[in-house]
Structure formats: C-alpha cells, structure tokens
Design a protein that fits this description.
about 350 residues; binds fe (iii) ion; single chain; globular; D-Maltodextrin-Binding Protein, domain 2; about 15% strand; 8-stranded mixed beta sheet; alpha+beta
C-alpha cells in the first residue's frame, strides 16, 4: 500500500497538471475587428484547446499599451497593420525572434522578418474621377507629381503609416533625392491640405473636390460591396488604376504580427502564429478585410477584389519598407506634406 504522503504528493501533481491544462490561454492584442474574426479565433480554440483573450484597440494605442505595460504585459501576440508599424514595434525591441519551419515555408520571404510575419496583403492604388482626369495621365505614382495634375491631387497626411510605407518603397526604387522631388511635386498639385482617411479621399474624388488620390484596396472593396446603394453608385464615378505596372509594380503592404518578448504563453503564441498561416485561417484573415492571403497557394473568392482585376505587385521586402520609414517621414516633412 502506498503511503498517504506519496498519495497526497501524487494528488497535488495531478491537481497542478489539471490546472495548467485548463489554463492554456493566449493573450492577443489585436488591431483587427472584423466579422470573420469570431470564426477565426473559435477555430483555433477548437483545434488546440487554447482559449484566446482578446484586447482590441486602435493600432497605435495597442503599441502604446504594450510599451506602458513593459515587462508585466500579459500580451503574447501583437497583431497590427502596416510594415511601418511592425517596424516600430520591432525597433522598440518588443518582439521575440521565432524559428518556425512552418512559417518560413508558408509565408514568402519578402513578407516576413525574423521577428514578425505578414498574414495578408493589400495594395495602394490610384483612384481617379473619370470625368476630370484621364487614365493615361495617372498610370504611375510618379504621375501624381506631374504638373498636368495641378490642383487635382487629394491625400491623407504624410505622417500616416500607409503613406510612410509608400514613400519607403519609392526611396528604394528611385533613391532619396528623386523621392523627395516627387513629394514636392505632389504637394504642389494638392487640391487641398491633407486631411481624413483613405475613404475620405475616395469620396472627395467621387464628389469632384479632387481628381485623383491613392487608397488601399480594401477601402475600395468595402465601397464596392457596400450594403448602401449610394456608396456602390459612388464607385461608378471612379476608375481604379494599378500603378507602375510597367516597372516595379504596385506598392503592397501587409497586416501581420509577432510574438512579444515578454509573452507569458510563448508556446501558445507560436502555435497561434502557425495557425494563422494555415489554409482556413488565411481565408478568414484575408477575407475579413477584403485583403489577399499572404500564403500564395491560398485563394479567396472575393467579388470586389476580383472586379479590380489582376496586377503586378511590388516584390520589395517588407523589411526594406521598415528600414526606410524614418527617411520617408523626413522627406514628407521637408516637402511640406503635412
Ligand atoms: Fe486601413
């Protein structure tokens, strides 16, 4: 017969094991909040038994929060959008490097760094008012600086990550001097001072306040798929142009994330990132915001994206965009692109 003490010890081990098995959790800080997210996360919990605690907030707020929480942060994963934002988190030393064969195989090399991974892509396209701008005059980002478009260009702030990343790409392709010349040319063509988000620029183009703007593809897809007839009708007034198809291709950006250095649940965190690269998760993740999956073999059926047609995407590594972000901001400042 076993001693009561041994029995107690065995019991205690059993209790501890049961408790830790029950408490498999993942703390997710996410800037995403789309309809398909419930299914995306529920599917992970079903497959792994790991419960997800989600904190959702605006992209920049989450980063601030993680910084303020410091070593005590409960966050395991930070999901956000834009290479410039991921780069900022990386630069602050918030991410832990991950070695995962699965992630390396599934996510193309230009869409990841050792510390973070893209799970979907979006493109930054040109939108013109069919009546006031000729498509042939706005085929490339470079054209936005052409005096032909004087008084016709609308833009959001030069400090916004989407425009920072676009400038980072132009620096890589044209060099800093040419990129700055471009920024000055675009500023000289402004119809008004920069304000609002991408959707505001699209609406200004449809209203005729401006003739041309740039926008991320998912904002256009949202309007194309809108429940509101008047929003769908707006889109009949514009032409969407894939810029720079004859050279380096249209600038793309990402949404993605990584594991935090201070993550209390590292094993669950890696499992979650690997899960996001799976076929099912890729579909949910991309389609939730009218984006393209990062994993090339995964296709989504999205009528709005299909309506925009096929295009050549810039293959520049996201890490290069990240690296040029500081220089990009300086160029916008010098050019007066507020
Ligand atoms: Fe956005």
């Amino acid at each position: 017969m076993k001693s009561p003490r041994l029995l107690l010890a065995l019991l205690a081990i059993g209790v501890v094991t049961a408790a830790s098995a029950q408490e498999k959790v993942l703390n997710l800080y996410s800037a995403r909040h789309y309809q398909t997210d419930e299914a995306l996360y529920a599917n992970f919990t079903r497959q792994t038994g790991i419960k997800i605690n989600r904190i959702e907030a605006k992209e920049d707020e989450l980063l601030e929060r993680i910084r303020n929480e410091g070593a005590n942060s409960p966050a395991d994963i930070f999901l956000t959008v834009d290479a410039a934002r991921l780069a900022k988190a990386d630069e602050l030393g918030l991410f832990a490097p991950i070695k995962s064969k699965l992630l390396e195989e599934r996510i193309p090399a230009n869409l990841r760094s050792p510390d973070w991974f893209a799970f979907s892509t979006r493109a930054r396209v040109i939108v013109i008012n069919k009546e006031t701008v000729k498509a042939e005059d706005a085929q490339n980002y470079e054209d936005l600086a052409n005096p032909k478009l004087k008084g016709k260009v609308c833009s959001r702030s030069g400090s916004h990550p989407y425009n920072i990343s676009l400038m980072s790409a132009l620096i890589a392709h044209l060099g800093e001097a040419k990129a700055e010349e471009w920024a000055r040319g675009v500023v000289a063509n402004f119809a008004r001072a920069p304000k609002g988000g991408d959707t505001d620029q699209i609406k200004s183009v449809t209203a005729g306040e401006c003739g041309v703007a740039v926008s991320n593809t998912y904002y256009l897809a949202r309007l194309l798929r809108s429940d509101k007839a008047d929003e769908r009708q707006l889109m009949e007034r514009v032409t969407i142009i894939w810029p720079d198809q004859k050279s380096y291709g249209t600038h793309i950006n990402i949404s993605g994330g990584g594991m935090l250095k201070t993550a209390p649940n590292k094993e669950s965190a890696v499992k979650f990132l690997e899960y996001l690269a799976s076929d099912d998760a890729q579909r949910y993740f991309a389609d939730g915001n009218n984006e393209w999956p990062a994993v090339a073999s995964v296709a989504v059926k999205n009528p709005a994206l299909e309506a925009m047609g096929k295009f050549k995407a810039d293959s520049l590594p996201m890490a290069t965009l990240a690296k040029n972000a500081v220089a990009a901001q300086r160029i916008y400042d010098r050019a007066g692109w507020k």
